Amino acid sequence: MKFQYCPQCARPLIVARFGDRDRSGCADPQCGYVHWDNPVPVVAAIVEHEGQIILARNAAWPAGAYALITGFLERGETPEIGVQREVEEELGLTPLAANFVGLYEFHRMNQLLIAYHVPATGTVRLNEELVDWKHVPFDQCRYWPAGTGFALRDWLMAKGIDAQPIEWPSARGGTTSS
């Protein structure tokens, strides 16, 4: 997010040395506002349902793009509660647990991903954020080389499954598995 004006005093922001790097901050030293641009905490769920993984497609994504269930951690929530809430809200399923998988960076969106394995029961009922979902057997799951994909890879490997990357389109029009 790019701010132009100080949210505390409404003066224009400048880029200057604050702390150990250049950051946006208020030009008025009496105000003292600095935009630290800290990463946003996001929870991610590797949802296990009926012995398979659920991957879902967000309404804003192109056809064929599927990933894990994710959502912003809300004020006052623990990550365990937040990830279970997201599974309930987005898939309509009842989470049975939240088992920590790991922390992952997602620099492009300035997010810190807090990933969990969430076994769940019930009938899938998508909310308005999602347009499609699919079950994928553990041994057929392929991870994407970014953010939540690395969480899926690590979880599969911990289960003894030889996790393989999906083929991504390259800049030259072919595919690559790197």
- Main sheet makeup: 7 strands, mixed
Measured by DSSP, the beta-strand proportion falls in 35-45%
Low-confidence stretches: 170-178
Tell me the number of helical segments per DSSP (H or I, 4 or more residues long): 2
Computed over alpha carbons, the radius of gyration is 20 Å
Task: Provide the CATH superfamily of the largest domain.
Answer: Nucleoside Triphosphate Pyrophosphohydrolase
Distance between the termini: 30 Å
Regarding CATH, which class of the largest domain? Alpha Beta
Binned, the helix content reads 10-25%
Number of domains: 2
Under CATH, the topology of the largest domain can be stated as Nucleoside Triphosphate Pyrophosphohydrolase
H/E element order: EEEEEEHEEEEEHEEE
* Total beta strand runs: 14
Return the structural class. mainly beta
The shape, in one word, is elongated
Average pLDDT value?
Answer: 92
CATH architecture of the largest domain: Alpha-Beta Complex
Structure description:
It is built from 2 helices and 14 strands. It has 2 domains: 37 residues, no CATH class; 124 residues, Alpha-Beta Complex (Nucleoside Triphosphate Pyrophosphohydrolase). The protein is elongated, with a radius of gyration of 20 Å. Helices cover 14% and strands 40% of the residues. The C terminus is likely disordered. Strands 4, 5, 6, 7, 8, 9 and 10 form a 7-stranded mixed sheet that branches. A 3-stranded antiparallel sheet has the order 1-2-3, with no helix packed on it. The protein starts with 12 loop residues before the first strand and ends with a strand. By secondary structure, the chain is mostly beta strands. One of its GO terms (molecular function) is NADH pyrophosphatase activity. This is NUDIX domain-containing protein. It catalyses: a 5'-end NAD(+)-phospho-ribonucleoside in mRNA + H2O = a 5'-end phospho-adenosine-phospho-ribonucleoside in mRNA + beta-nicotinamide D-ribonucleotide + 2 H(+). It comes from Hydrocarboniphaga daqingensis. Its cofactor is Zn(2+); Mg(2+).
